Amino acid sequence: MAITNVASSVVKGVWGLPRKVFGTRNDRILKGYQRRVAPINALEADVRGGFDDRFARRIAEERLEETPVEEQESIRQRIRVELSEDLRERAKSIRAQFAEAYGPLEAWWKSLTPAERLEEYYRGEYRKRNAKVIDDLDKIGANQEAFALLREASRRARNHRHFDCQIVGGRVLYEGRIAEMRTGEGKTIVCHLAAFLTVLSGKKVHVVTVNDYLVRRDAEFAAPIFELVGVRVGYIQAQVDPAGREGIRQAAYACDISYGTNSEFGFDYLRDNMKTQFNEQVQGALDFVVVDEVDSILIDEARTPLIISGPTQDDVTRYPRADKVALELVRRQATWDRKVLSTIARYDGDEHGIPKLGDAMAILGLKEKKAKVGAGAKKVTVPPDESSEATGEADEAGGESMATLGPDFLTDDQVEAIQMYENNILKLPPAEQYRRYFIVQMERKQAAVTHEGVTIAQELLDVGSLYSGDNMEWPHLIENSLRAHKVYQCDKDYVVQNGQIIIVDPFTGRLMIGRQWSDGLHQSVEAKEGVRVKEETQTLATITIQNFIKLYRIKSGMTGTAMTEATEFDKIYRLDVVEIPTNRPVNRVDHNDKMYRDTEQKYGAIVDEIFEVHRRGRPADPFLMADVFAALRPILARQGKDTSKLDEGLRQFNGAEYGDRKVIAFMVETYDELMGDLARGRPVLVGTTSVENSERLSKLLTQRYGIDHEVLNAKNHAREAEIVAKAGETSLPMHGGDKKPRGHVTIATNMAGRGTDIKLGAGVVYPTCKMPEKLPEGTKPSALYPPGVTKCCLRCEEYDPATNCAHCFKPKLDPRFPELGRKVCKINVPCGLHIVGTERHEARRIDNQLRGRAGRQGDPGSSRFFLSLQDELLKLFMSDWMLKMMERLGFTEGSSLEDKRLTKGIERAQRKVEERNFSTRKHLLEWDEPMDFQRREFYTARQRILEERDLPELIFDTIDNAVRTTLKQFLGGHYRERCIAEWCRANMALTIDEESIDVSDLESAAASIRKVARDETHDQIRTSLGEYVDADEPPANWDLGGLVQWAKRAFDFSVSQNHLRKMAPAEIEEALLEAADEHVENANCEGVAIFLDSQYPYRALVDWAKSKFNIQVSQEDVVEKSTGEIVELFDRRVREAYREREINYPVEWCLERAVGEETTDNATAAAAIVTWVNGKFNVGWTLNDIQGKTVPEVREMMIALNREFLSGRLEKEIDAGIGGKDREAALEWARKRFGRAWNEERFAGFKGELREAILAQGREFLRWELTRLEQFVLLRIYDQAWKDHLLEMDHLKSAIMQRPLGGDQSHPQSQYAIEGRDLFNQMWARIAGRVTDIIFKVRATGGPEGDGRAPGATGGRAPAPMVFRHADATGAGFAGASADQQAAMQAQGTEGKVETIRRDQPKVGRNDPCPCGSGKKYKQCHGRSQ
Questions:
Q1: pLDDT at position 1345, please?
Q2: CB neighbours (10 Å) of residue 535?
Q3: N or C end of the chain, less CB within 10 A?
Q4: Phi-psi map region of 1366: left, alpha, beta (phi>0 left; psi -120 to 50 alpha)
């Protein structure tokens, strides 16, 4: 054994040698970063210049003391901005250097297609090239100067000069890594450095944090800093302009740096991808993101889906009915639960060979009752100044705090065990045996109705069987209502505010406004609480937070605990974690965990520790105080102080039995006396794992000691930051004679209040440990410890035992130091914040986050976790034999276990859970990947439409694919057979294989159809007959009524039940076969004759082309032609038709709006036409040009103009307009000429000469109206298809998860990906079909398509000429016309009153079908604005 240990030590030593010599990987990375800090520090004096003197003079000149206090800071900021012009000039110079360095990289990135930019390969390549650019900027000193600039801006604006460790953190973020920095190390200003350098490179920065309070706080803190260097800061918040209609979000995103929560950034991404106008999008490019509390957002909340949903067609009246049924089931079940108590009372502990009986009795309270007897005899340590009466109340409260699980937690097997016991052993009659109407699974938050429960529900609902027809939804609704009543609790799982159900986050206690449970659960809770039941929702857009963050080009993050999840960050996000040392040493003592047998004892010990620490700064732990006495004795002895009482305390401790209250009381009194002023109340922060545990501990704390405390839960959600910020303070007690300050007690979940620093209040730290303003004589000042900060001896880097720290001020103020701090305080820290953890979390980083709340910026602090064998983490890894072994070693009821090895063992268990959780998250990621791929592909295609990028090309691509697919379908063989097979399905309800159909003539085709029909009907009869007739049963039990109905419906076979009852089953079968054969022979198959013509596929193809694209193709054009020739023909004809549509549609659009309304007079219509023509073609038309012409004549004139411009006149105008001008002048002319059709993004992305780019914009200008229509139609088609696809994917996932494993289901995620891809392809096929159906037919408004008339054309009469005179009913003459109309009419001498010309075309009624082809009524579609 000894040899093994020696060998193991040697191996460990050799293995660890390289680490000792070269340091860890993190150490080596830090050395590289720290080398970059020195050049930044060297620039500090130069960048600062004479600002401080100039600022002081300006403040004196402003006579600030005479200004109201609330206005002083704004004046100071104005002065800072005016005096910081030097910073902005230097920033401008650095920005130019950055632009030059990043130019090639950004040009390469823009050259990629939108789809390529989303691929991981190109993103990885971008990160590599970005790192190279950063190195190049280091070489020219641009990065160093930028860091120095922002450090100085922060010092000027907020008096926050970045520490060297913060400079390192900023560099880590800038390079796209995760910076792990301890709580209190100023992560808020660390991200400023990375954000500033990123903005200088021309990219937008998003800073993600955990809640709206921190969003506003951090943004408002950062804004004055960045104002000094010419950078704008904005922020977004929930409930503020969520749709972006007011422009608030657009303005926030237009800033260089935008703050927001992960949810708001994600929802804006989804909302932007639902917008129908490009200029309504708010978010912009996803360039660079800094994620604060990155472990919480990218690990804990990563798989949280962000969902935008809309109401579905849902009968909400079902939920209150289901709620009434659930309430009745609960009431009846409560009666049986009371009756079963008599069974428990008679149970003798013998399981009688009945499986699960012991477990069932334990759940019903048997073991708990026995445990309470033992617990009641246990003595509880009470402080000397507390009465015995209070102690008795505390014991009673502690005993009642442990609730029995109860019958709701029984499983089916356990219920059956109780029933067997009552039947076989107790001999109870069936009517008195225990029943369960539902089973509750609390850990899964589920409830299931039993068979007996369903029977009662059927009686209450009176709708027949709940497992047939339309009733099959009822069991699900009732189970949801049971979950609402038995699992989900008000003010714990949700709150009711303003008539709405708001979900509570179980980990943080925060209200999740806008979220709702799915699958009808939310509606069931609404019915339970009696608020308005909203319709169920259907997903319209969704993305997980993880997949949203992965969309950013460069990702970075910061937190206090990320190293434990470094592997996951690397594998999923390609993010490296760098642990950054603190500016000052961490002076926190992490005590070993304390373990108790059960939760009741553990909570009792927690309450005792909170009480003692909050009033005297130490627990009433005799073992800890004995260690303190042993360390304190030599210190007091050297000072010549009396140690007799201390010695007596040690003597009593060594001779006492465990739990001797008198000895404990004496030791507590001795400690308080010896420590003097150091025995003071300390603030206590209690971290729990759930809101439920917080409430439980709060109740126990109030019952036992009546301590004032704050609980962070849903009831005071709005005060979260305020409560956490005050957790480090003390105050004088309100009652009693004790005037020593007591620490605040705050109870919160481990995750609550993240991002809010807990700063220690005045008096929490021992005054001697605070750096004085004036140092005692003989002490040296320290740059690390300026006046007012804490200098703790625990881990002081300046400790000098040889001189007893003669350089320090503390020994001169209190001779017990530094020895007291080095030897006594490390055993029990007497001041600072104390952290109590009620349970170990399964993730180490959550525990580390809780611990990290204490000991910020060198302050003292301590932490301890309390455990019990009933904790979930210990249940996972501690088996029964281990518990028995611990009992043999003395771990009995009432005792506690505390050992360093136990703490280490818990951490090893946590590592195993972390590995399992990582595997689980990776497993979930595999489910996310198919939807993530589909979402990115769909949104990329949709964005192309929104940005109007080559819509004709997109349409032609869709048409070309449709043509090729259709040709393959029509001319690929067996088309006639497929048509016949489809005819059989529709007319004969017959499924027939196309290969079995003979198409040589009608007789052969009919024969082949009848043969298949006979075979199928025979099989159907043999299969179905057994459902109605059982040869082993008497005829009286046969379902002859059902058989008669089926035979009549299937084969038109009429027979009476009495006749069938006299026949044998074989005779019935023979009769049915004969009837079926006769039915088949009489079937009329003449309908298939149309498909037998060999030319039918060509005829169908020609008809398809005409119906789809309105193009004329004769049958002779395609017969006997190759596929390539037909494709070429269709391509040519379709493009010709589309060219005509480009020419005609803008003209029709103008005329429709000018003369299409019945109330429009001719003068107004004429003015509108002339204005449109002149704006479009710049031809100088006047009203004379169309005076006396009919609408069709005007239409032809306008079409001729459009055709002329598209055929070359546009090029001539552009050549004349830009000829002889420089680039800027040419662009100014083009922007003015093409007005709102000018697209800067399209122009910037055009690859070619300036003239060609302007010409492309001009062509788009000529077809602007058609582009608007196509964009509208395409977006409608795409969005509807995507919404339907999301629903299909939800159903697919549910179906796959319910399939049994095996075969294709060996890997359900892979099957989901495969079938999901098939559905995605089908979605694109539906989109293509819909586009080709309507894109050539749809119009914005107007009469029915295809009526052969242009807008304004008349029916059977000759078109009326256009005479432009105003009907002046008021005598106002031309006064009623616009200035342009007056000038036009006066020039032509028009005056007086004439008849108004109205259109003769029939008007579309509001309830008529909309002519656009949408299928909606006109008033609900294009007539909505009328």
A1: 39
A2: 13
A3: N
A4: beta
